[in-house]
Every structure is written in C-alpha cells, then in structure tokens.
Amino acid sequence: MRLAKYLAAAGVASRRKAEQIIREGRVTVNGERALLPQTGVSAGDEILVDGIPVRSPEHYYYLLLDKPIGFVSTVSDPHGRPTVLDLVKDIPARIYPVGRLDADTSGVLLLTNDGGLAYRLTHPRFHVEKEYRAWVKGFPSAETLQQLSRGVEVEGRKTAPAQVRAVRKGNGCTLLDNVLTEGRKRQVKQMCAAVGHPVLKLRRIRFAFLTARGLRAGAYRHLSRSEVKKLYHLVKMGSNSSV
Ligand code: URA
User: Which of 61, 88, 134, 172 is the most exposed place for a label (fewest CB within 10 A)?
Assistant: First the structure.
C-alpha cells in the first residue's frame, strides 16, 4: 500500500494532509525517513510519524450489536449489571459503545475503538439519524405528533426537529416511529413523557443506515469495509482520516 494511503487508513490525517506530513519529513519507515507519498509499505513495517508509531488500520474494530434488554451500554457498571461488552468477549481491543442505549432499551448499537469516527457519529453537528420504535401509553393526537416533530422542552432545552409518526395502535398504546439526529440522555422517553405519553417499551431499529437485520438479540457482526467507508463519508471524514 502507498504510504499516504496507509496513514490515512490508520486515521492519522486525510490523504492530502498525510502527503504533506510525508513531504515535511515527519515520517520514517523502518528507521529511514520517507519523503515520497507513494513509498510502498506493508503490514510488518515500522512506521512512525513524529517519532510516534502509527497503529495499523487493521487494529480498528467496528461491531454492530443487537443489544438485548438488561445490558448497560457502558464499559463497566458500578451496580454490577451485565454490560454490552460481556456480549463481545473475543475482541482484542478496547472497544466501546458509540452513544448509549438505556438498560431497558434494545436494538442497534455500534461498538468501536475508532475514537474519531465515534465522536463524529454522536455529535449533533453531523445529523446522524437514529430511528426508534416506541410503544407509548395512550393515543397521541396529530397535534401532539407535530409537537414532537417540531421539538419539545426537555430539561430546559428544546429538542431538535425530528420525524415522528404513529405506526400502529392497540391495547391502549401507540407504536411511534421516531427519527432523531440528537442523542440526548433518555431522549425518546423524555420527549414522549413531556407530551403526556410515557414510553412503555423502546427499541432502536436504525443507526445511520445500519439496522439489526439478520442479527439475533445479543448477537453482533463486524461491519464490512464498505459500511465503514460509508460511515466515514456520512460524517465527512474523507477516505479514512481522523478528526
Ligand atoms: N432514548 C431513550 O429514551 N432511551 C434510549 O435508550 C435511547 C434513546
């Protein structure tokens, strides 16, 4: 692989910035200064930028989990409850959840050790969509749904515009579909409670373009390279650069 591409894939910088870093003489390959972006490198080479080793791109993990109810989406829990990491034991890296799902919420959860990507995917500036199906108590009126879509006051701050619609009704409850671009704490529950329709059950069915299709509850899969690339694109990170 070309050196500039390798640095970009490893998250050091965008491809163009990596070329500049190389030309500035800041990169060594097996102890030799490399000044050409097209220098060929491979897996076993020792590559340093400003004297600091570059982590090989293969060391990034991107997992998609169908989180079951009863697991907390933190790395450890002071109350000793099972965490989502208990479901992905065989990953030899310090991965962590991208955003959070409450213990009693199920559904799509991404885990990674790619901090730059995780940061952007959860930052409201990048408007990454998360879609939730919420069974709420009662039958919200059309006006209430509009109110939820326009934004409601939650903890003293109005929520960002969302897409909220009723999918089904039954047994004194309504199934709402909520597409949000923010990720505030307990947001769906707080929004629905704010309009008088508490959430009874909540599942995230989509994170960006990723769904849990084909996964059993508690199971996970690795994202494909093209899915990772698509996520990078979505948050405007070029071919594979860091923030
Ligand atoms: N909104 C919530 O209320 N809970 C979640 O787990 C996710 C979004």
Answer: 172
